[in-house]
User: What shape does this take?
Amino acid sequence: MILKNKSFWRLGFAISLLLGFTACKKQDSIRPGIEKRLSVLDSTRLTRPEKSLSELDSLLQNSKDLNDKERALLLFNKGEALYLNDKYLEAFNTQQQSHKLFVELKDGYNEARSLITLSGAALHMGDIETSQRYALEALELSRSIGDKRIEGKAYNQLFKLHFRLKDYQEALSYIQLTDSLYTIEADTTSLISIKGNTASVYLKLKDYNKALASYSEAMALSQTKRDPKTLVSVLNNIGYTYMEAGEYESSEKFLRGAITLNKNIKAINAAPYKGLGSLFLLKAQNDSAEVNFNKALAIYRANKDMKEEIDVRDKLIAISIMSGDYTKALNHQVVRDSLQLNVNHLEKNRLLNFANVNYEVKRKETEIQHQKEINRRNTWLLISTVVLFIFLLIIAAFSIYNTKLRAANRASKLEQRLLRVQMNPHFIFNTLAAIQNIILDGNPIKSSNHIAKFSKLIRQNFDYVRKESISLDKEMEMVANYIETQQLRFNNAFTYSIEIEGIDDPSSVMLPPMLLQPFIENAIEYGLKGKKEGGELLIKIEKNGKDLSFVISDNGVGRSAKAKDEKITEELHATSVFLERLKMRKKGEEKTFVIEDLFDTDNNPAGTKVFFKLKIQ
Assistant: This one.
């Protein structure tokens, strides 16, 4: 009887082991239906990204009893789809979930794949350290499992990272390792991309012969693969390389070849036209340059590529100014400024949505978990708790969103006011008139230098107005550029000097942009402008501990004298905008602001002095 019981016990134990093994196999396997859906979605991920993401979400939320392997692969594919469609934060969060599951499943191959995407997403978001950590983990894992293709992808990711850091020699070593691994795999499509990346590094290193050699290899591979679209891209890159090397005839040949091939395959591509425009501009053939830039502009406008359109319009503005067509230049500038505002608006919205996207991801995860709890417990108490919790979250989210939106609107209005103060139309047209006089006097070199300075000043104003802070050396560079442009207007009737004390490295000191220019303009327009000669403008900056003091003084006719002829309001002095900017910093700096009238020994007006302090780190 005892032996019989032992036999039953052994049989039961064996059956339990078998069932456990079967359950484990089932847990680690993918059901045919899920596998088929993943295969279909993989082919539509690039062509129909929104549909692909929608179906993946549907599978994740509605498919019952997903095992860990299936959930991990669905999350991985969703992360890949988000990454390929430039939704890097969402891709990063989703891939972290899939990576965790792959680690638990001990699936080294897919774990390494998820690490590659995590590294790429982190790099796009500017987190260099995290990107490098994930890339090195992927490299180590790929070596341990012996997968050369993933090892090549890890090296390629390290290449992108070092290229972003402008460490071109290190980037070159990684792309060469990638090249060697993909050559073994005989992956023509990937090899073309690798050859292009190799050429881009040589281009940065100014080694044009090696860059052209790499592009030639890419061109030969494209011809072998019979991929005309890729071949167009390669031809265009070769044209740009020859242009940078100063071989204009060869550059034109390849750029025109790209245009011809585009026509043959009925493709619309603006890059070769933009390249020809740049080439003719370098050759001082402004009419031909303008024709090609306009062709590129039409394509970019049709594709709604605002960033490229801004770049092309900048070139057209320069051409119009050089040809003396200031009306056309101004028309391009107006459109360009409108586009820039749209780009800025989209960028701000993207940054503001980062937090909301993170919240949405967490909220969806919480909802899924809560739904499972509701199904298991089936109690109204838990349902009420979940509903109340979500309601409170929504109220909090709307409150935070409204607060951020109000802050963004206030910042945008202040930015527009600041830009109007910095670049008033009288200054722009008077400067253009002064440059025109130099051109009429027959001094092309001098006029070209002043056009370059004036264009740089306009660019600095539009670029810096969007920034919260810039370094002191950049602020001083812009101030010097502005004063020298004003000296041109007034035939050098005054001199200026900039004194910086107690600061060893001006590039390490950060301050709000364009604080000084309005007061410098007042000193020139309402003080030094009234002096025929001997005008002096002094800008003194001194660091004392954590305080940075500023003094702007002139020996002009003084505010009191000038006010008899002109009514100078606080708005003309731009002090209201200035003080509002200081108040937004919430450091009490506005209390240090003083405008002082200067007098000589006979108590006659002898200039004006502006003083204020900033708190720095």
